[in-house]
Amino acid sequence: MKVPLLDVPAQNAGLKNELMEAFEGVLDSGYFILGPEVEAFEEEAASYLGTAHAIGVSSGTDALIVALMAAGVTAGDEVICPSFTFFATAGSIMRIGAVPVFVDSDEESFNLDLRGADDLVNERTKAIVPVHLFGRCAAMGKVKAFARKHSLVVIEDTAQSLGASICSKKCGTMGDFGTYSFFPSKNLGGFGDAGLVSCDDDERAEAVKRLRNHGMFPKYYHSEVGGNFRIDALQAALLRKKLPHLDSYGRGRAENAAYYLAEFAELDSSRVTLPLSGGADDGVIWNQFTMKVHGERDALKAHLLENDVGCEIYYPVPLHKQECFNQLPETKLPVAEKLAQEVLSIPVYAELGDERRERVAKVVNSFFKS
Ligand SMILES: Cc1ncc(COP(=O)(O)O)c(C=O)c1O
């Protein structure tokens, strides 16, 4: 039996009629960029998140760029972010001419670790971008205390963690801005590229809306330079059909994660470390099920692939080691470097089903028991 790492068609198949109806609605309306579907989606997303504003944009990357711009981060400013994350977190900072200042990660949660980070702050430091990696909320109490102490804007990169919450407060809504991605493999998968920015502050929301449309206000007047970061009406119309199911997708992922945690509980902890447990209400939405394999990660990956079980290394190179950041001051981040050597993610999507997850567990167990 083949178990792919992702199965995007499976999730959408159950909603095919509704999605086709939404598609036809947009097709017939001729309204393809922003407009009523986008406004309706933004209202529904804001209500789901419990924020005053949710603003649709063209991708999770552009959500970061536009939030940084709306936060007033400009060329030469410094922004603190983790090194162990997807490239877009730091790429977006660099794209607006600012400088990413990398911090190390916590070995257990994979999220940023701010111990020692006070020393990285100077008069150019303007913002911090915590990433809620793999579906797990970063330690936002600590992030907010750090940001308060140093007067930094907090932009939560929630691309991988939409739907998680802590004490009923949704991940992405605890800082000044939350940014989200609807890349098809994300918790709320879109139909191409799309993203969202959330915030509570009216002025900041207006700034995001202006900046996503070339900084234009009123029409054809530009007092600032933005970009084309607009969301398509089609994405919004289709995402409106999936948003009501987001929590059930999260429950499906959590069930699969709980199953793996039970199946792998007896494995030798000197060979493999399992992810921390947790559910959506404790800030974990299981965008990935990521194990740390000590010394034999690549062998386990080869074993899974030989047995037709999809898996992936998210991420093999921490960002402070990426060639494009060579000009930044050299830094040593031992945990991020170690994680990059040890992590391996296995399929955890809601539509996995009993047979496929049993197969994954059997193949993983056979590696460690041989
Ligand atoms: C942590 C993180 N930030 C940002 C992004 C960028 O999102 P997008 O691919 O929608 O631009 C991603 C998506 O892969 C991500 O995982």
Structural commentary:
This protein is of the alpha/beta class and 370 residues long. The protein is 37% helix and 13% strand. The chain has helices at residues 8-13, 16-29, 36-49, 60-70, 88-95, 140-150, 202-211, 233-242, 246-263, 297-306, 334-342, 353-369; strands at residues 53-57, 78-82, 99-103, 125-128, 153-157, 165-166, 169-170, 177-181, 195-199, 272-273, 289-293, 343-346. The strands form 3 sheets. The chain has a 7-stranded mixed beta sheet with strand order 1-9-8-5-4-2-3, sandwiched between helices. A 3-stranded antiparallel beta sheet has the order 10-11-12. Helix 5 links the parallel strand 2 (78-82) and strand 3. It is globular, with a radius of gyration of 21 Å. The two termini are 21 Å apart. The protein binds pyridoxal-5'-phosphate. Pyridoxal-5'-phosphate (PLP) is lined by residues 59-61, 85-86, 88-89, 131, 157, 159-160, 181, 183, 193, 195.
Bound molecules: pyridoxal-5'-phosphate
CATH architecture of the largest domain: 3-Layer(aba) Sandwich
CATH topology of the largest domain: Aspartate Aminotransferase, domain 2
Helix content: 25-40%
CATH homologous superfamily label of the largest domain? Type I PLP-dependent aspartate aminotransferase-like (Major domain)
User: Could you say which overall geometry the principal axes of the C-alpha atoms support?
Assistant: globular
Order of helices and strands: HHHEHEHEEHEEEEEHHHEEHHEH
For the record, give the distance between the C-alpha atoms at the N and C termini, rounded to a whole number. Answer: 21 Å
Low-confidence stretches: none
Biggest sheet descriptor: 7 strands, mixed
Gyration radius, rounded: 21 Å
